[in-house]
Amino acid sequence: MTDPGAYCREIESYLCRCNDGHLIRIVGPAFEQVRGWAEAGVPLQVVTAGIDRRLARYRATGPHRRPLRIEFCEADVLDAFDEWRRAVGVGAAARGASDAPDGGEGPDRRTRSGRRLTLPRHVDRILEAASNRLAREEMPEGLRAALTRLVADLDALRPAVRGARGAARKAVIERLDAIDRVLLAAAREAAGPDLDGLEAEARDELASFRPRLDAAAFARAVDASVDRLLRSRLGLPSVRFDE
Asked: What is the CA radius of gyration of the chain?
């Protein structure tokens, strides 16, 4: 069981760094909010990802005299947690940490912060992310080849994405899943011996869910968490589209 006090202090420290050294104590209702995240098993890495999202939007509106408070990050933290649960396959075990059912609301699902997630926008975003990654820096040749192939595959798929319904939409989503598996296989090969460290990190991240999952489900969750960590370390997009 996560120690809520230690968990809260870690978030305070992170938020202090985000606020250029301005420390705001998490007390009272804010502490109860954060303790709820700890009890629900929201990993610290997920909380910081949510804070980063909220901070990016906050800064985009111009200079501010007031530092960002944790209370205003909740929608983004819970969005990030929903995405993490779907990514690692612990949605059912985590049910109750938020009000929304797993998987959203269909083709035009809304996140808590109000953003629409459509299939065409998803494909466009992945194409942009993959192209930017290819242009940014050196990477293992196998991974570069996989990303180059991903861009070509998605470019070829784009005409089928817009307006796809029923069986055609299902076929597009299945194709995206296949493209994603190829990319992850290349990422695992590029990681080499670092995979052991990523697996240990994944097990630690999932520790609060271990009592709620059987051995097979936990192994699948660890495997999916390693994939998520690989994406983060290597700057890779998630191609699959979860409805």
From this structure: 19
Over residues 205-209, mean pLDDT: 87
In the structure encoding, which two tokens stand for residue 108, read together? 């035009």
Query: Considering the domain boundaries, does residue 105 fall inside one?
Result: no
Same domain, residue pair 164 and 80: no
Contact 141, 99 (CB under 8 A): no
65 and 9 in a single domain? The answer is yes
Report the phi/psi class of residue 41: left, alpha or beta, with left for phi > 0 and alpha for psi in -120 to 50: left
Tell me the two tokens of residue 98: 């938020």
Where residue 227 falls among pLDDT bands split at 50, 70, 90?
Answer: very high
Do 123 and 95 have their domain in common? no
Longest dimension (CA), the chain: 53
Q: What's the total number of domains in the chain?
A: 2
Query: Does residue 186 contact residue 143 with C-beta atoms inside 8 Å?
Result: yes
pTM of the entire predicted model: 0.69
Burial group, residue 107, by CB count within 10 angstroms (0-12, 13-18, 19+): middle
Q: Compute the distance between CA of residue 139 and CA of residue 134 in angstroms, rounded to an integer.
A: 8
206, part of any domain: yes
Q: Which of 65, 100, 135 is the last residue of a domain?
A: 100
The boundaries of the domain holding residue 124 are 118-234
DSSP 63: -
Residues 138 and 211 in one domain: yes
Per DSSP, helices labelled H in the chain are 4-18, 29-40, 44-60, 74-88, 91-94, 119-136, 141-161, 166-191, 194-205, 215-234
